[in-house]
Specification:
The structure holds two protein chains of two kinds. In chain A, 62% of the residues lie in helices and 5% in strands. Chain A is mostly helical. Chain A folds into two domains: 125 residues, no CATH class; 218 residues, MetI-like (MetI-like fold, Orthogonal Bundle), CATH 1.10.3720. In chain A, helix 1 crosses helix 16 and helix 8 crosses helix 15. Chain B is an alpha/beta fold. Chain B has one domain: 3-Layer(aba) Sandwich (Rossmann fold). Classes of the chains: A mainly alpha, B alpha/beta. At the A-B interface, helix 12 and helix 13 of A face helix 2, strand 6, helix 3 and helix 6 of B.
C-alpha cells in the first residue's frame, strides 16, 4: 500500500474543498431559515390581526317581554329593536332628550334586536316575564373594549364619543359587559355590519362550487388521462394534445372566467353568480391539474405489473381496471385534491361570472346566488369599517384552515391506499 | 438423457423478423420447439432471445413501434393470424418474467386472478382447488398454505418467483415461457425452480431464456444458441454442449466470448 501523503498543496486544496462545502451548506440553511421566517411572520401577523374577530362583546340587559313592547300574536314582526333600546335606556334614567337617546341606542348593534327575538322564539315561556340577556354591542364599542380603538386619543380622532365612553364605563362598572366567542362569524351570512357579518354563506358557496368542480373535472380528467396514457397511440396528434394540456395549466385563470361568461352564461343561459357556473369554470381550470398528475401516476406504475397481468391473459381494459388504476389511485386522489384546493382559493375567474357580490343568503343549491371564501375575503377587505379588518384576517385564517384540512385529507388518502411492490 | 427420437413439435417458428422502429432485432428465426420438453435459448446479451420469447405470446404487440414478420404456429395454428385473440393466446401461453412480479395483492388473489378473469371456476370451492393445486405444483403450498391472505410481495425472492409460476400455470396453459426466471435468485432458490421445471414439463412445454449455460445444460432437452438476432445453432442440449458444430457456439459455450 502506498503511503497516504499530505503535501502542503494537497492540504490547501482539501481545506478549500471543505470551505466550499461548508459555504454551500450555509447558503442552503440560510435559504430555508429566511423562507421559514417570512412564512412565520406572515402567518403570525394574519393570525394576530384575526383574533379580535373571533370574540364579541355583549351587554347584559334586563328585558321585559310584555305586551307593552311586542305583539304576542305576531312575534316575528314585533318591534324587537325598540324593546332592546328601551331596556338599555332603563339603565340610564338620567339620559333625556331625543338626540341623547338615539346616541345611547347606537351602543347596541342592529343585531341586538335579533338576539332578543331569537331568544324569545326559542323560549316561548319567557313571554310576560323579565329576562336577563346578553345582546350584541356595536362594532365600534366592541373594538374599543378590545383595545383596538385607543381611548386615550382626543375625542375628535376617535369614533367613540366621550359621552359613549362614560355610558360604557358605567356598564362595565355594573359588570354588564361580557366577552364571548363570536359564533356569528360561522353561523351568519354576509352583512354590512361587521359584528354581524359571517362566513356561513361563503363557506356553503365554496362547498357547492367545489362539488360541481369535482363532479365535472374528476371523471373527465381521469378518463382523459387513462386514454392518453394507456390506450392512445403515441403519434403526432396525441403529442399535440399532450402539449396543449400542459399549456392549459399555464393559462391565466381570468381567461377561464371570460370563457365561462361567454359560454355558460351568455350561450347556455345559466344563472349568474351561481355555484353551478363557478364550479364549471373552476373545473375547466382544474382539468389539466388533474390530468397531468394522473398521467404521472399511471406512468409511475412499474411495467412489470402490466406485463404480469397481460402474461396471464388480462385484456387491456382488465389490466387498467384491475391493476394500474388501483395502484395509481393514491396519486390520482392527491392530484385531484390539490387541484381542488387550488380551485378553492381562486378568485379571478369568479370575478367575471358575478360571484364577487354582496350576497346575504346562504345558498340552498347550485343555482342559488352565492359567493365563495376568497371573494368574501376580498369584499371584506374593501369595506371601510375598521372591524372588517379583523374579519378579513379571520376569513383568511378560515380559508387557510380549510386548505390545510384538504391537504391533510390528500396525505391521508395517499397513505391509506399506497401499496408496495 | 433418453428422449424419444421423434417428439411432437409444439411451436414452429419460420422466418421470424422483429423490428423496433428502424432497428432489426431478429433476422429470420427458424426454430422448432418440442412438446413436453424444456427448450433453452442461450446467447450473449442483446442477441434477441428474449425478443423471440416475447413473440411466442405476442407480448411485443404492446411495445410502440415494434413490428413482427414471419410465422409462429402453436399446434399448427398461426398465432399472428387475424382470427387469434391475443388474450386467449396469452391464456394458453403463460409467461414467467426475469424479475419476480407478483401483484401487490394477497397470495391467494395472485394465483386466482387468471382463473377469475377467464371464468375457469364456477364456485368458490373450485377456485380454492385451482389455487391449491397450482401452488402445490409450483412447490410453494407447504410454505404459504397458512398465510394465503398475506401479500404476495411479502414473500422472499425465490418464493415470489414460484408464486409467479403458480400464477402462470393456474390458467392451465399449454406452453410456459420463462425469461431468465432465476437471474434474481440465489443458488438454493434456483435449484428449487430447476427441479420444478423438470416436474412441470410433464404437462407443459417450456421455453426458457437463460444466461447460465450450466442451467441450460442441467434442465433443457434442446438448446438454441442466438447471436446478433440469428439462431446460429440448435439441437439436442447434450450435442450442443459436448460437440458444437459452429465455431461461435463453441466459443460462447467454452467461455471465450459472452
Amino acid at each position: 500500500m502506498t503511503e497516504f501523503r499530505q503535501t502542503e498543496a494537497r492540504k490547501a486544496q482539501l481545506a478549500k474543498r471543505y470551505r466550499a462545502e461548508y459555504r454551500f451548506k450555509a447558503f442552503g440553511i440560510g435559504a430555508i431559515c429566511t423562507a421559514g421566517l417570512i412564512l412565520l411572520f406572515l402567518m403570525g401577523s394574519i393570525l394576530i390581526s384575526s383574533l379580535p374577530a373571533f370574540t364579541q362583546h355583549y351587554v347584559t340587559l334586563d328585558i321585559e317581554i310584555t305586551e307593552r313592547h311586542i305583539d304576542t300574536q305576531n312575534l316575528a314582526n314585533s318591534d324587537w329593536r325598540g324593546l332592546a333600546r328601551t331596556s338599555l335606556r332603563a339603565q340610564f334614567p338620567e339620559v333625556q332628550g331625543r338626540r341623547d337617546k338615539r346616541a345611547l341606542g347606537k351602543l347596541l348593534s342592529i343585531g341586538a334586536s335579533d338576539d332578543v327575538r331569537d331568544y324569545v322564539l326559542a323560549n316561548p315561556s319567557s313571554l310576560g316575564t323579565k329576562i336577563r340577556l346578553p345582546v350584541t354591542l356595536s362594532d365600534d364599542i366592541d373594538l374599543l373594549l378590545k383595545g383596538v380603538i385607543d381611548r386615550e386619543l382626543p375625542e375628535n380622532e376617535r369614533v367613540v364619543s366621550n359621552q359613549n365612553l362614560a355610558w360604557l364605563d358605567k356598564l362595565v362598572a355594573e359588570d354588564r359587559i361580557s366577552r364571548q366567542f363570536a359564533t356569528k362569524i360561522f353561523t351568519n351570512g354576509d352583512s354590512r355590519e361587521p359584528e354581524l357579518a359571517g362566513l356561513h354563506g361563503a363557506l356553503v358557496g365554496t362547498l357547492w362550487t367545489l362539488l360541481v368542480t369535482l363532479l365535472a373535472s374528476f371523471p373527465l380528467g381521469v378518463m382523459a388521462a387513462i386514454y392518453l396514457e394507456e390506450i392512445a397511440p403515441k403519434n403526432r396528434l396525441t403529442r399535440i394534445i399532450e402539449v396543449n394540456i400542459n399549456n392549459l395549466a399555464a393559462v391565466p385563470s381570468i381567461v377561464f372566467g371570460l370563457l365561462g361568461l361567454a359560454v355558460f352564461i351568455n350561450f347556455f343561459g345559466m344563472p349568474r353568480s351561481a355555484p353551478l357556473v363557478g364550479g364549471l369554470v373552476l373545473a375547466l381550470m382544474t382539468l389539466p391539474r388533474i390530468i397531468i398528475p394522473t398521467r404521472a401516476a399511471f406512468a409511475a406504475i412499474p411495467p412489470s405489473i402490466r406485463e404480469a397481468a397481460m402474461g396471464v391473459g388480462a385484456s387491456r381494459l382488465q389490466v387498467i381496471m384491475h391493476h394500474v388504476l388501483p395502484l395509481a389511485m393514491p396519486g390520482i386522489l392527491t392530484g385531484t385534491i390539490i387541484g381542488l384546493a387550488q380551485a378553492a382559493g381562486e378568485t379571478a375567474p369568479l370575478l367575471m361570472i358575478g360571484m364577487m357580490a354582496f350576497i346575504v343568503d346562504v345558498p340552498s343549491d347550485v343555482t342559488a346566488k352565492a359567493t365563495v371564501l376568497p371573494a368574501q375575503i376580498y369584499m371584506w377587505a374593501n369595506n371601510p369599517e375598521r372591524a372588517f379588518m379583523a374579519r378579513t384576517s379571520a376569513g383568511i385564517v378560515v380559508l387557510l384552515s380549510l386548505l390545510l384540512l384538504v391537504n391533510a385529507t390528500a396525505i391521508y388518502f395517499r397513505k391509506r391506499f399506497e401499496k408496495r411492490w | 438423457m433418453s428422449e424419444k427420437t421423434d417428439p411432437k413439435i409444439k411451436i414452429e417458428a419460420r422466418g421470424v423478423e422483429v423490428f423496433y422502429g428502424e432497428a432489426q432485432a431478429l433476422h429470420g428465426i427458424d426454430l422448432d420447439v418440442n412438446a413436453n420438453q424444456v427448450t433453452a435459448l442461450i446467447g450473449p446479451s442483446g442477441c434477441g432471445k428474449s425478443t423471440f420469447l416475447r413473440c411466442i405470446n405476442r407480448m411485443n404487440d404492446v411495445i410502440d413501434g415494434c413490428r413482427v414478420n414471419g410465422n409462429i404456429a402453436i399446434d399448427g395454428q398461426d398465432i399472428y393470424s387475424a382470427e387469434i385473440d391475443v388474450v386467449e393466446l396469452r391464456a394458453r401461453v403463460g409467461m414467467v418474467f426475469q424479475k419476480p412480479n407478483p401483484f401487490p395483492k394477497s397470495i391467494y388473489d395472485n394465483v386466482a386472478y387468471g382463473p377469475r378473469i377467464h371464468g375457469l371456476s364456477q364456485s368458490r370451492e373450485q377456485l380454492d382447488h385451482i389455487v391449491e393445486s397450482s401452488l402445490k405444483r409450483a412447490g410453494l403450498w407447504a410454505e404459504v398454505s397458512d398465510r394465503l391472505l398475506a401479500s404476495g410481495t411479502s414473500l422472499s425472492g425465490g418464493q415470489q418467483q414460484r408464486l409467479c409460476i403458480a400464477r402462470a400455470i393456474a390458467v392451465s396453459p399449454d406452453v410456459v415461457l420463462m425469461d431468465e426466471p432465476c437471474s434474481a435468485l440465489d443458488p438454493i432458490a434456483t435449484a428449487v425452480i430447476e427441479e420444478l421445471m423438470e416436474e412441470l414439463r410433464k404437462d407443459y412445454t417450456i421455453v426458457i431464456v437463460t444466461h447460465s449455460m450450466q442451467q441450460a445444460a442441467r434442465i433443457s432437452q434442446r438448446t438454441a444458441y442466438f447471436h446478433l438476432g440469428n439462431v446460429v445453432e440448435h439441437g439436442a442440449t447434450q450435442q450442443i454442449f459436448t460437440n458444437p458444430q459452429n465455431q461461435q457456439t463453441e466459443a460462447y459455450i467454452s467461455g471465450k466470448i459472452g
